[in-house]
Amino acid sequence: MTEQLNREYDIGDEIGRGRFGVVRRCVSRATGDAFAVKSVDRSLLGDDLDRALAELEPKLARLAGGEGDGNPGVLQVRAVYEDDAWTHTVMDLCTGPDLLDWIRLRRGAPVPEPDAARVVAQLAEALAGCHRRGVVHRDVKPDNVLLDVDPAGEAPPRVRLADFGSAAWLGEGARGRAEGLVGTPHYVAPEVVAGGEYGEKVDVWSAGVVMYALLSGGALPFGGETAADVFAAVLRGSLRFPPALFAGVSPAAKDLMRRMMCRDVSRRFSAEQVLRHPWIQSGGGGRELVRPT
User: Fold this and answer.
1) How confident is the model over 35-56, as pLDDT tens digits?
2) Catalytic-residue membership of 139
3) Catalytic residue from among 48, 50, 83, 139
């Protein structure tokens, strides 16, 4: 590991893995504060795209997070150390599970709408901040949404969007375009699968899939036996709400999911529009659908 990193931090046990590297707990030797450090051995990356993404990841993560905690819904980067082979990114340490484990702990029970609305609102707020700064995440999924838990139990968990290993830079205000089949099959937007260029709304589609998983107890809207089958289902974009899973879900919640997972990108909501939807504004408590203005 980089000598300066070892001088400044005590490196502990592995706590996770990202797309390119291993994440370990670490403690600042100066302050005693605990952080996480993601270490990527760039020499092991044989693909040109992977090398480019690994090089960009800490830069885009830092940009997406904003200076001085400007985007608190993004896991904050505190320091980056590099040498000829390795990149080590020191980040805030979350005290809770990721969203995937949180859903699994419910053993198939759906997340109550007020709790789901809180998660979706915080995720949309984080994405809106990323997009304003020109960053598209491209791999929004429950595994990459961490929960920061209040040790005293007095405040609800706070969402932190993590792992920018698939992110792209679209220019200020996300006016540019990205390309390439990047992301996770069940969560990727249809325009990514179709090939060609696409914009920041691919993240909103993925966040819509996350919302679907929260309210269904872990089910996903687009499935298949193989990745090719899943991609085909995503391209069809036939969004259904099986009564066995969604009988108790409000019309307002279903409306928002339809707007987030709309195949027509021009009609799909932006992250900012998600935040203005009545279901979000009511904190998931509005049972009737009121059209947003």
Assistant:
1) 999 998 887 787 777 778 888 8
2) yes
3) 139
